[in-house]
């Protein structure tokens, strides 16, 4: 009987989101031999689906001062270590006519106590800075909010870890955790591309699977950990209605944040307990709610063009012994290391639960510290100072960077995705280096087809180019085209009104009319998850992306299962 | 589209209209500049697309946007109502605010300044402007192309003539907004216009007036443009408010008052400008409306000539069709060949600039060819800068439609 | 206020067809529109009926069946004969037009089967002669020629798709490096201008020939074979290559669509009609069921334009003729005509699968057999307003392969109805010479 091949490592990190990547980076920097496994592509889970806010902490100063303090500190650290992933938009807390003015005073007081540098400005000044803000606001405060590109962040840390010898294995799904007595000794994973199994033996397993933590722990026989998946939807509006993060100055509520992220502005979010982190439908009621909430911050919001809607799921931690809570917002947003030795008598395993992207570095530090403590090896954390790849020049992201870059190639290079200013060289490079035939992966990394035209023009072009550089044969090209159309549709049909409907109709004319893709030969059923099987795995020290170039794009908007129930 | 947030005037409306863009490429097929030069990436790129990468009043990083001529054809043809040209003009102002406005642009943007300086010394100035060596020196020094079509100073101003002219009493009145071109370079056109209107029983007031600020706006000097247009509006507003129509012979300047200043310079709150905007008419628009009411004298003498008519881009921007064609159709014996070319290229001050002159000549090449092939006696065009460009390129005398009507009315 | 015999709203195929047809009978027509219409975006072919739901071979027959099965379909207001008349009229316009001898070929008898830019065989009834050589029913092998500088056309993708399409045609691809305008990015229009130039054509012929062509191979190009003289360009290529040449429509801007527009625009001009752009219809003044004038927004002003007849051809959701707002209320944006086919509040408008049948797909203005808009009670909203094109309810043109056919047929029918009704009125047309 052929044995299953095995890898050895010091640390096995489960989960390729912000937490996992941060943990891999931290542990690798400390000299551990790390393997990271992720069932899909990096940042496909929660990290790729959040609203893009790098918290100043202002949101929590009243309700959850501990969380606020963490944000204050980590915000500053991240601006230092990953500046390229961050745009310094600044933030505003505003008291809308619906908000209790007394809260504003508590807010200010809370900022003072947590040392959050908030400043009150006049309403006139706030409106001068942000002409589309609700003119009825009554107070306004500036805070150091920023917008962060989660995808790029995750990639930076993963690449950094790989640069220190870590092995980043995407499309490797954990199917079982190995236990030897009271110790976890590793895991079995399935390579989703080849279907082959692989065993990973590790001294320690760090469960950084976020909202999916319970599913992983179940494989080790550990139950009732109290991860409460909290679903939230977000809508990306076609352009920047504001250039500053806008927060409602009130106790945290739904739809009270509007974040400018790259070329779009994202309104979010709702908060609904979901039993299964993979079942997170977008409901019509939520969409309506977000539009109303947007209207409260920016009058005329409902007339603006909505680009995409998607749902993400937060990993909230709650002690399993407490009553089940319906509003997950009341659950603390700080993170916690779940010590399974204490709780369950199981060695060699720790779980990170809760947390937010803003504190990813701290979460990683706490988790790796806890591991070091358990194995009795004190190795110092270096992530406060070290910059992962792609951030060397210390320049924060600026909105106009792609436009500026394009100026120098105006005459020489074809523009493939016009909305997002992606040139042909960039595209071909990404195709070559990622070595993938999966248009989806490329789409994510470059934001191809994520602009207003939703791929109406660029997807045909990209498919043609992919086909001609021999990355796709005819059947795959056809499947890829149809797959893209379905993938895009998922994120669009719940918000298909106004200008976006006009666009969709034009795109229908192009795809169904002019190109007649509806009658492409092949399976009428559109493949979606099958697409993943064509991505590439990474083994050895090679990172998934090109060592010489961090992919610049971000992916804030991609619907998972999106079912709308009217 | 009629009653939404789209009735909020100012920058917000222009920029927010980018949401309507569905990337259809129709604007690109019509853009006269991007079709002849790769230096301008095209209206779709520079307008709604790049605007998503711009922040408020920060400078746009794309210097290539300066190659937009501001002709406005893109806005006219856009099926979705994106205010493309207006977005471009605003972006250009932000660009210039940071990069600075060259001396040349500052000079070109102030025709009244040039006018006041040049008029007293007209013969010398005119000679200089036609002296090749001097022009080469000027090009080297400040960047006005040595072959750029410069008008001749008349040596007198239309305002002066108007002060000395008494308009006969009549039931109807108009206020004449003649513009800088008529004042300093073509006062005869102003005289003809007054005569034609009076001939049709209309008394003509010529208020004291200055530049409408359009060249300042096109060159990105928004603050100055605002003060000029506001000042002009204050002078014209009393007429508008007392029910007197304001009629203009410079079709680009009347468009500025009708809508461009309000849309691009965010002057929706300027009461005087709003009042003026509602009562401004291009002169051919006004005359045709008279005719439709049966109030225009149409006992025209025959003019057995062949002319080529070119509707300037900004005239098309009024959205009123081509009233000049309908008017000239009333003149017996006159053969009017309508050019189907889009743009003559000069676009106000654009084609005068060293780096844009060649582009402008390429843009207008189709029109120039038509004028030549038609064997026209004259070319007819409603905008003064376009007339100078056409004459320069073809050698064919180019006149305002009013001149044709003036002559056909037997006036001298 | 200006006054016109007929005002047509919209510059797409439906609007221009109606306008030209009416104008050439002597009536004064004014066309008002927000901008240029969808001619520049379509393939430039007149597709009558492509799928019903299977691929249609004989559109005339399939049309008859469709009308029997779906009396609410917009074609029902035209009839098979009416569609035929519209096609004939259109063919004659092109044949007499400024691009002659450029012409269209085909008719209601049989659909040609033309390859799309991804190699799918697409049925089409009436196509430019420059495309007709691509009919896949004859099985001749195809050599697809593309240009690296033209990112909107990928010959290898087409060839591959064609071979897999099951029509039994072999295909291969050739990519040329010829760049017409010294830039890396040249769109279809740029190439079309180049193909108007004999020197450029000569280079193309030389380079294609140098790659070697099979004895019975025909050659496919992207649809960029000339804008000023497409027939000349195409004929020169056929002559130079010594074999059949055809062009394949691809992403907008559509050169064949622009030719179509130029033809109708010129015909309208010759017949004395006018087009006003940046004129947005925002309402009407009425006298009971009689529309007296349109309220039109021009820049910042609202003007009134009087008319005896109005043809509304504003183009459906794609061009804003129909609008769905964020509260899921739908409306017809020019005159506020009642709509049909819009799901009630709280019901699904779209379904989760992209290729699903979406409940709102056939929404539009309901009309009677004389194209007059109807209210919910079946009464005419206006006596003197006719609706044509994509604003009409009852069809999903991009799925059925009927887009341009519907526009042409209903635009033509609207014109015929207006002319018939006008000739029976005793009042003289309005005396004022409209703008």
Report on the architecture of this protein:
- The complex is a heterotrimer of chains A (566), B (412) and C (435).
- Chain A has helices at 18-29, 65-81, 101-114, 123-129, 150-163, 213-219, 284-297, 340-344, 360-375, 401-407, 424-434, 439-446, 458-468, 474-492, 498-514, 529-532; strands spanning 6-14, 34-38, 53-54, 86-87, 91-95, 119-121, 139-143, 146-148, 167-170, 172-180, 183-191, 197-207, 227-237, 245-248, 257-261, 264-268, 272-273, 306-317, 335-339, 349-354, 415-417, 422-423.
- By secondary structure, chain A is an alpha+beta fold.
- Chain A folds into three domains: 6-46 and 151-227 and 329-375, 3-Layer(bba) Sandwich (FAD/NAD(P)-binding domain); 56-146 and 228-319, 2-Layer Sandwich (D-Amino Acid Oxidase, Chain A, domain 2); 402-532, no CATH class.
- In chain A, the strands form four sheets. In chain A, strands 5, 6, 7, 13, 14, 15, 16, 17 and 18 form a nine-stranded mixed sheet that branches.
- In chain A, a hairpin with a 4-residue loop joins β21 (415-417) and β22.
- Chain A is globular, with a radius of gyration of 23 Å.
- The relative contact order of chain A is 0.16.
- With 412 residues, chain B is an alpha/beta fold.
- Chain B has helices spanning 11-16, 26-30, 43-51, 73-77, 84-99, 103-108, 111-118, 122-129, 132-142, 158-163, 179-185, 187-199, 214-218, 222-241, 251-264, 271-278, 283-292, 313-316, 323-328, 357-373, 384-394, 401-408; strands at residues 172-177, 202-205, 245-248, 280-282, 306-310, 335-338, 378-381, 398-399.
- In chain B, strands 2-1-3-4 form a four-stranded parallel sheet, sandwiched between helices. Chain B has a four-stranded parallel sheet with strand order 6-5-7-8.
- In chain B, β7, α21 (384-394) and β8 form a beta-alpha-beta unit.
- Chain B is globular and about 55 Å long.
- Chain C folds into two domains: 2-93 and 260-280 and 305-423, FAD/NAD(P)-binding domain; 141-243.
- Chain C contains eleven helices and 19 strands.
- In chain C, the strands form six sheets. In chain C, strands 1, 2, 11, 12, 13, 14 and 19 form a seven-stranded mixed sheet that branches. Chain C has a four-stranded parallel sheet with strand order 8-7-9-10, with helices on both faces. Chain C has a two-stranded antiparallel ribbon with strand order 3-6.
- The longest helix of chain C is centred in the C-terminal third of the chain and has 21 residues, at 403-423.
- Classes of the chains: A alpha+beta (566), B alpha/beta (412), C alpha/beta (435).
- Chains in contact: A-B, A-C, B-C.
- At the A-C interface, α13, α14 and α15 of A face α5 and α10 of C.
